[in-house]
Amino acid sequence: MQRFTVPILLAALFAGLIGMSQGGMIDLYIQSVIMFMGINIILSSSLNIVNGYMGEFSCGHAGFMAVGAYVPSLLSVWLLTDDRVFGPAVLSPELALVIFPLCLLGGAVAAALAGLLVAIPSFKTRDDYLAIITIASLYIVKSTIENISAIGGPRGFMGMRSAVVFMEDVIELPWMMIWIFICTVFTVWIIRRFVSSTYGKGIIAIRQDEVAAEIMSVNTNKMKVVAFMLSSGLAGLAGGLFAHVLGYVNPGAFGILKTTEIMVMVYLGGMGSLTGSVLSAVLFTVLMEAMRPLQIIKWVIVPLMLIILMHFRPEGIMGNRELSDIFPRLRRWFQFK
Amino acid sequence: MALLEIQSVTQIFGGLCALSDFNLRFDGGELNGLIGPNGAGKTTVFNLVSGFYKPSQGNILFKGRDTRRLKPHKITALGVARTFQNIRLWHDMTVLDNIRLARHQTLGYNLVDALARTRRYQRAEADIEHSAHEILEALKLDRYALERPRNLPYGLQRRVEIARALAGKPSLLLLDEPAAGLNSTDIEGLIGLIRWIHKEFKLTIWMIEHQMDVVMSLCTWIKVIDFGATIAEGTPDQIQNNPDVIKAYLGDGAL
Ligand SMILES: Nc1ncnc2c1ncn2[C@@H]1O[C@H](COP(=O)(O)OP(=O)(O)OP(=O)(O)O)[C@@H](O)[C@H]1O
Ligand SMILES: [Mg+2]
Questions:
Q1: What's the whole-number average pLDDT of chain A?
Q2: Poorest-confidence range of B131-140, B163-172, B241-250?
Q3: Would A196 be classed as within a structural domain?
Q4: Whole domain around residue A277: which residue ranges?
């Protein structure tokens, strides 16, 4: 019986969200907040793989998100629309429903490959040095994009919104909401499966004692590659969704500030807790929206919150525990594998 | 073919010669000792055998294979397991997970299986779980399966480390000062345990130990090093009466 609780709840949530969006019961603003929640959940839980479970300090997450934002945007514009740079559409817009997820997948794969950029130096370094390397990789991605004028350079790139419009033309549904929902659930579920397998626990062993991990049979280099690629690939997925929700991307959006935001979510939720990452992403999204009228002062309040949090609860909301560790009784009602 | 052959290995750190011209040959089945004063280079020998250090000179063969190009996890997969002088368990995982992880090289499934939860994954994990429980039971640790090592008394932590080493089904077990920090009743138990493991698991054990009664009562052949140089080897009796050994331990004045 517990096996069905989570799928039933998710199905109900899914139906509720789509129904209310479709029926106009929640306006476009609320819809976009919900969509950003999903994207933030993907971002924080994927960064948690590396910074939480594996205990490395990576600051490059926004860079992978950028790769994942640009690649599918370029793909969908090239394939589906008439564009000045890319020429006329290659495929019929009716195929949008099939092409869009493939574009997203392409972005995730590209971001995963970019993850190698950080995984390989991590074989030999960690802590501060790795942090510097990951910041460097973030800037490599950012300035590469800024210097390719065909994709808009620093001005940014747009036109991918058409892919969403085409999907809505084929079947009238809030498609971005649907894809974000699917990708969010997929991400959390994949990560859960990864870190609860003996295979994936290799990265937790790396965090707790890397020398012992290598000597007691964990191929630490391989596990680092796997973890970095999984983490950056999922960040890429979030990037692709982000780009298509906004309909516009520019390299400035993927700077150190974006990375900081994602890190705040991971540390707020608790390193090595998926429940924590999900909760804090939701909380963070709502807070950021609530503080929107404060404009720039928001960036005084957010770091302040982080300082207070680190002082009083350095392990974050959940520590490294999951919901079912805190309330073991819940196990009778649900299981999530 | 010898199980382990160390051929004139020298290890230099910066200007310090931690080990010089070290030779050894195990045919399999031994329960031998390695002793020497503090800083003699004993742990260095184990770090070399487990592949954590690569020899500056000389060669190490395990089951006939040159281990110089192999990463530690590969050497472990070939059948070398060890414990550490200062316990190195994964302290925030359960004891059970510590044991399970020692199977990382012989999981029997890959990443895709883990994510898709294939039949292969289910079967392999069930097997890993089963044999982990078997090891824990054999070492009377089953009661602590879900505890974190951090919360266990020192003696039990040592035992968990031995259990973890055994979980990978090694053919050579290296014990680096297993009796360190144990009280006399624990040491009694440890001697029995090591003897039992040697018989039951039919493996080769090589131990470093400062507690002479432990080494002398367990080991059949003992090697003594001092300042990286081999100064004696032989049976416990021969070692106890060797003037060079007495000198290394007690200083010149003892003679
Ligand atoms: N990685 C290293 N870098 C530099 N010097 C090292 C390194 N490892 C060991 N040494 C040095 O090599 C010498 C031998 O050290 P080792 O740990 O092997 O001694 P030991 O015989 O195990 O001593 P103990 O009984 O205290 O454990 C010491 O002088 C030590 O400082
Ligand atoms: Mg030592």
A1: 89
A2: B241-250
A3: yes
A4: 2-332
Asked if residue A337 belongs to a domain, the reply is no
Q: What is the distance between the alpha carbons of residues A328 and A75, in angstroms, rounded to a whole number? A: 46
ipTM: 0.92
Mutational test site, ligand 1, from B13, B22, B47, B174, max ligand atoms within 8 Å of CB: B13
- How many domains does chain A contain in total? 1
In a domain, A298, yes or no: yes
Which among B147, B102, B110, B107 is positioned nearest to B127, based on CA atoms?
B107
Q: What is the CATH number of the domain that holds A170?
A: 1.10.3470
Pairing mode of beta strands B57-62, B65-66: antiparallel
Chain A residues with beta carbon closer than 8 angstroms to that of B100: 198, 201
Q: CA angle, A216 as apex, A215 and A217 as ends, to 5°?
A: 95
Please name the residue whose Cα sits nearest to atom 23 of ligand 1: B39
Q: Please report the domains of chain B, with CATH numbers, ordered by start residue.
A: 4-92+165-250 (3.40.50.300)
Residue B48 confidence (pLDDT) above 70: yes
**pLDDT tens digits for A150-170?**
888 888 898 888 888 888 888
Cβ count within 10 A of residue A67: 29
pLDDT at B246 over 60: yes
Q: What is the pLDDT of residue B86?
A: 94
Above pLDDT 90, what percent of chain B?
A: 90
Q: Is residue A231 part of a domain?
A: yes
Asked whether A114 and A215 are in contact (CB, 8 A), the reply is no
Would you call A99 exposed, middle or buried from its count of C-beta atoms within 10 A (0-12, 13-18, 19+)? buried
| Residue B216 φ/ψ, nearest 5 degrees | -65, -35
The answer to whether B101 faces chain A, any CB pair under 8 Å, is yes
Q: Which ligand is nearest to the CA of B22?
A: 1
pLDDT tens across A116-147, in order? 888 888 888 778 888 898 999 999 999 999 99
At B73 the pLDDT is 96
Query: What pLDDT shows up at residue B87?
Result: 95
Measure CB to CB from residue A209 to each of B88, B107, B168 and give the nearest one.
B88
Can you name the residues that pair with B222 across neighbouring β-strands? B33, B234
Other CB atoms within 10 Å distance of the CB of residue A93: 18
Contact A202, B57 (CB under 8 A): no
How much is the pLDDT for A300? 83
Burial A156-188 (b: 16+ CB within 10 A, else e): bbbbbbbbbebbeeeeeebbbbebbbebbbebb
Measuring CA to CA, which residue among B134, B161, B132 is closest to residue B149? Answer: B161
State if pTM tops 0.90.
yes
